[in-house]
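Now for today's protein:

——
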Amino acid sequence: MTDGSELVITRTSDAPMALVWRAWSEPEHYSKWFGPKGFTVPQCTIDFRVGGKYLYSMKGSDFESWYTGVYKEIVPMTKIVATASMADPQGNVLDPSTIPGMPPGWPTETLIELTFEDLGGKTRMTLHHIGFPAGEGREYAGVGYNEAFDKLAQSLRS
């Protein structure tokens, strides 16, 4: 998408591809690192197959939100494509315009495409989060993803 509604982040991890893949595809790994600095993922379910759903909560000191989506494409050790939406704890998609503090025009659903490249003991990940409107919300999402990738790097070392 070239209309400016795409957030792109590329990171190289010092971990092997199989470990990085598990960090994204298994809830016990995902919940250890995802979210910005200071946030945790206390609940996470992942049905990791095309058509399967994920649901997780992200909790900060005074903030908790839920996110869900459906896996559209999975190419083992290569690519994950999934929708992404805000949700309630039961996994029902929420209309962002009804959520206090959400920027105006925030879409109900966006698309995440994550690709992996094996660099011989290291792994390059490229995240394309498509559908963000320009502005402050997308800037915050970029900061949050970068902080999450920092947490991922640390969790892969331990």
Observations:
- Residues 136-157 form the longest helix (22 residues).
- The CA atoms of residues 5 and 132 lie 5 Å apart.
- The chain has one domain: 6-157.
- The longest strand covers residues 64-75.
